[in-house]
Design brief:
The complex is a heterodimer of chains A (82) and B (156). In chain A, 30% of the residues lie in helices and 24% in strands. Chain A contains 2 helices and 3 strands; from the N terminus they run βββαα. Chain B is mainly beta. Chain B is built from 1 helix and 10 strands. The N and C termini of chain B lie far apart (42 Å). The C terminus of chain B is likely disordered. Classes of the chains: A alpha+beta (82), B mainly beta (156). Chains A and B meet through helix 1 and helix 2 of A and strand 6, helix 1, strand 7 and strand 8 of B.
Chain lengths: 82, 156
């Protein structure tokens, strides 16, 4: 991993059009400002990991669905004329 | 075209049925094309099947059937990515289900729904960053059945 030292107000540039600035440092909390093109998605890492884990777990439960599929099929949308 | 699925064998789909996900879906890198197949007539559930990978299939649901007051607001970036024209585009929103051994404990991911521009067939998994939703909301009531009373697990 590349490790760089930066001070408050300094930035790094990634590629041509991503700039990450150290906005504020308070104790062990660092606030980052990120400028990137719209098509680049930016997430907190733990949130991304949580969704990844949930997606993979969901797929595994579908693989082991078995007769639970029939239970699902019994559930209908709320009928419009009821 | 024909695609292979683990749940129902070979399946013939129309090219226009394919929903394209330009961004990576967390955990499914390299998967950018899916089809939605209803589980049954009038079912709130759908298979969300990868076009490329036969084993990759999720079951997703219309969240509003189970969570009537569910709401999220898409950010500008997602609206642009989905090419949504406000007030014109038909948008579909689904929650991914996790269906454990104990069926009653089925949960829906309300934190990161699948959002689709139904007109242009473009989709993404939206991450609702500023809400109190999480990835596991029970879709069935948890305290109405005497016999399946959870002894140790707390409700989420």
């Amino acid at each position: 991993m590349l490790v760089l030292s930066r001070k408050k107000g300094e930035s790094i540039i990634i590629g041509e059009n991503i700039e990450i600035t150290i906005v504020e440092i308070q104790g062990d909390v660092i606030r980052l400002g990120i400028e990137a093109p719209r098509e680049i998605s930016i997430y907190r890492q733990e949130l991304w990991e949580e969704i990844k884990k949930s997606n993979q777990e969901a797929t595994q439960t579908v693989e082991k669905l078995g007769d639970k599929l029939d239970l699902l099929k019994e559930i209908k949308r709320p009928a419009k004329n009821e | 075209m024909q695609i292979q699925t683990a749940l129902f064998g070979d399946l013939t789909i129309k090219d226009t049925d394919i929903i394209t996900f330009p961004d990576a879906i967390p955990g499914f890198s390299g998967e950018h094309e899916f089809v939605l197949i209803p589980l049954d007539d009038d079912s709130p559930f759908f298979y969300f099947q990868s076009v490329k990978t036969k084993e990759l299939c999720l079951i997703i649901t219309d969240p509003f059937t189970f969570f009537t007051d569910y709401e999220i607001k898409l950010d500008e970036e997602s609206i642009q990515k989905l090419e949504i024209i406000e007030g014109k585009t038909n948008i579909a929103l689904y929650s991914i289900l996790t269906i454990p051994e104990e069926f009653k404990k089925t949960t829906a991911n309300l934190l990161a729904p699948i959002v689709i521009n139904a007109d242009k067939k473009i989709g993404l998994q939206f991450i609702a960053q500023n809400y109190d939703y999480n990835t596991k909301h029970f879709i069935f009531p948890q305290n109405q059945s005497e016999e399946i009373k959870p002894a140790t697990r707390k409700g989420l």
